Amino acid sequence: ASGTGSGTTTTTSAWWWTTQAKKATGTTSTTSAWWWTTSSTTPGATPDCTHTEENVDYWTSKTITKYGIEDVKSPGACRAKCKANADCGAFTWGAARGLPGITDVCWLKELGEKEVPIKHHKYGVVSGVTCPSNSSNATSSSNASSVSGSSNASSAHPAHSGHADKAPHSGHADEASTTTLVTSSTTTPLTTSSTTTLPWVAAGSGELYCFALMLPFGYEPKLLAMQYEQGVSLFACDEYAVYSNKSMEIAHGLASHVVPINLKCEFGGEFGTALNTAIFRAIWIKVVSEARFKLYKWSVKVDPDCVFLPNRLRHVLRSHTEGERGTYLNNCKFGMHGPIEVFSNKAVETLVNGWDHCDRHFRKLCSGDCWWGEDLFIDQCMKRVLDVQRDNEYKMLTEDHCDAPKGWKDCLNHTVVAFHPFKSSFDYQECLNNANMDVTSVQYFKQEQEHVMPPCRLLQRGAWN
């Protein structure tokens, strides 16, 4: 696969199952798999208010409907709801099928004076703007659902053979489609903020603040750069940051936040884990000192090699409320594991303010250092000392250290928020792609695996030595 510089088109190539998925659904779509594309973006013009754009998410200064309006059956109906709201100037509608929190959900967004929405390439969503009431070319909401030049609203309802974990300010994947979607070889480059000097994006939706700690060497910078370019994992949250002990440009427009600490740590203790509690204490102090997390209800610490789907988390969080001293999610029956950690706003402050108290408490209990990793320390600290509400949410994480089911590394479970670990770019991408397949494609893919699979595919999955 190849990608070109800013302002140009790209070419893509698909892997084996993409063709098979087309056969399973009977489609003649010419859409290539998106994940082998290196895409570039350039500033775009104001969107045409008489059309909608498929596979594009509009980012604006403010989202009016944080969780979206459910059971909106078409982009035209979503446009109508936007037009009926005096504050709404743009909208995004979930066209992807079979994804709770996405399918038939309509997000309304404000557009400030002379503001042009930032376009992000996101498969499975449809976006548009409303026409001014005095516009001569405004169309009624009943027929204003043309997608990427299509005159038929039904084309905005693709029965995808691969889907996305996406919402406003959320970027994800798709695979082959049963309709002719916009491919990377024909798509006009989308707009991003290419002159950003801050290493975060403040979207203002108030839901998820996500961050990662990155080693400035090894595989982590490359993994994070790939995630950033695709708008996935923490980069699909409402605001994000990457921390490291070295100032570096991870990707164009993405720089690390510097925390002057030594990131090397020993392995040991009862469970043979990384003894990184002191490191993450410094990271959490930095997070609190920057105070960006306060703008959002939930803060998420995610490891670079964790395949994290933020919109699934958004859906999960609807059933959780903040306790008096905050709330955090326990993601494993053995206790909270560190690849993904989720804390309410108040829980973050409680943790950082009470960290030293917990340290003294456990040193006395253990007659010295307890030799714990940061995840065990935080879990015990918040649960047993700081009295923070602990909600069990075992579908948060699937990983080999938490009694994962057989075959879990195919990432085909659509209820799981995060999978860990996937340290190579290929393995990470494969897991992400599989996680974003729709139910029909998953069933077909599993049937194919049970029968026959080309040798090259087996080799890619590490089945042969």
Automatic annotation (TrEMBL):
<dbReference type="GO" id="GO:0005576">
    <property type="term" value="C:extracellular region"/>
</dbReference>
<dbReference type="Pfam" id="PF14295">
    <property type="entry name" value="PAN_4"/>
</dbReference>
<feature type="compositionally biased region" description="Basic and acidic residues">
    <location>
        <begin position="162"/>
        <end position="175"/>
    </location>
</feature>
<protein>
    <recommendedName>
        <fullName>Apple domain-containing protein</fullName>
    </recommendedName>
</protein>
<dbReference type="InterPro" id="IPR003609">
    <property type="entry name" value="Pan_app"/>
</dbReference>
<feature type="compositionally biased region" description="Low complexity">
    <location>
        <begin position="137"/>
        <end position="156"/>
    </location>
</feature>
<feature type="region of interest" description="Disordered">
    <location>
        <begin position="137"/>
        <end position="194"/>
    </location>
</feature>
<keyword id="KW-0677">Repeat</keyword>
<keyword id="KW-1015">Disulfide bond</keyword>
<feature type="domain" description="Apple">
    <location>
        <begin position="49"/>
        <end position="131"/>
    </location>
</feature>
<dbReference type="GO" id="GO:0006508">
    <property type="term" value="P:proteolysis"/>
</dbReference>
<dbReference type="InterPro" id="IPR000177">
    <property type="entry name" value="Apple"/>
</dbReference>
<feature type="compositionally biased region" description="Low complexity">
    <location>
        <begin position="177"/>
        <end position="194"/>
    </location>
</feature>
